[in-house]
TrEMBL record:
The lineage of its organism: Bacteria, Pseudomonadati, Pseudomonadota, Alphaproteobacteria, Rhodospirillales. PROSITE patterns: ABC_TRANSPORTER_1, ABC_TRANSPORTER_2. Residues 18-252 form the ABC transporter domain. This is NitT/TauT family transport system ATP-binding protein. One of its GO terms (molecular function) is ATP binding. InterPro entries: AAA+_ATPase, ABC_transporter-like_ATP-bd, ABC_transporter-like_CS, ABC_transporter_ATP-bind, P-loop_NTPase. Belongs to the ABC transporter superfamily. Pfam families: ABC_tran. Keywords: ATP-binding, Nucleotide-binding, Transport.
């Protein structure tokens, strides 16, 4: 069940590759890493879900991938180069738990926001058509709605559409469905898998939900705290069909969820 990261160079075809990565925040002279010794390979077009106790560094890891924070030590490549290069090419999209939609712009205006603030489009693929995104995210018919006329699930769909506008090759999602009810979350999870298959985007998806991590993830990165480290990388690809799907209630998925729960408990102990 465990995939041991190879100790050599990055596997070619990796969208994200890390070796001995230490990440954290500098406090004056010293910097105690939040996470240390991270070895990781996410294949291009992969779907990695990330589980770990609160404060273990899940959001910090996404920040380093997105080049919003420099690593303290070790190596990381994003799409074969430094994270800054991927960022400059706008290869990375980000969706947060509480998507901030501009309240005075309608759905279409919020999705198209990156076009306004994006600056030059040199060497960039054509942005996706907004109507195509509306259809892709099940928002057709809601283009003229204002954010306060949307449900929580619809708002997150708008945030995802906005993140996909510039066709990023990597989508980082930080507890995007954490505030939604379970039925809405299940439906959005199915839509995420369809979206992932259709676009071929590499996805890193942080969640607190073991069920969500097992259902969405083709690989699950389980992080531990005290000290922050990789507890295990669980490969679920053998349990998924060719579309990356599985039956939520299948015995092998239930067993994986139990395994993830044990890993989390072990990694949360002080
Ligand atoms: N901007 C920051 N400056 C200093 N420390 C931070 C900052 N952001 C987060 N931290 C600390 O880094 C650790 C990991 O935070 P975070 O990555 O947000 O955890 P998680 O997303 O797993 O809950 C926590 O101890 C947190 O307090
Ligand atoms: Mg977080």
């Amino acid at each position: 069940m465990t995939v041991a990261p190879d100790s050599g160079n990055a596997i070619s075809g990796s969208a994200i590759s890390a070796r001995g990565l230490a990440i954290g925040y500098s406090h004056g002279a010293g910097a105690l890493p939040v996470l240390d010794g991270v070895d990781l390979d996410v294949p291009a077009g992969g779907f990695l879900t990330i589980l770990g106790p609160s404060g273990c560094g899940k959001s910090t890891l996404l920040r380093v991938v997105a080049d919003l924070l420099a690593p303290l030590a070790g190596a990381i490549t994003v799409l074969g180069g430094p994270p800054a290069q991927a960022r400059a090419r706008r290869d990375i999209g980000f969706v947060f738990q509480d998507s901030t939609l501009l309240p005075w712009r309608d759905v279409r205006g919020n999705i198209e926001l990156p076009l306004l603030v994006g600056g030059g489009r040199r060497n960039r693929p054509e942005p996706m058509a907004t109507d195509e995104l509306l259809a892709l995210l099940g928002l057709a018919g809601l283009a003229e709605r204002m954010p306060d006329q949307l449900s929580g699930g619809q708002r997150q769909r708008v945030a995802i559409a906005r993140a996909l506008l510039s066709r990023p090759r990597i989508l980082l999602m930080d507890e995007p469905f954490g505030a939604l009810d379970e039925i809405t979350r299940d439906r959005l999870n199915d839509e995420m898998l369809a979206l992932w298959r259709r676009t071929g985007t590499t996805i890193l998806f942080v969640t607190h939900s073991i069920a969500e991590a097992a259902y969405l993830g083709q690989q699950v990165l389980v992080l531990a705290a005290h000290p922050g480290r990789v507890q295990e990388i669980v490969d679920l690809r053998p349990l998924k069909d060719s579309d990356g799907r599985c039956d939520r209630d299948a015995p092998e998925i239930v067993a994986v969820a139990a395994h993830l729960r044990r890993l989390l408990a072990a990694g949360s102990a002080r």
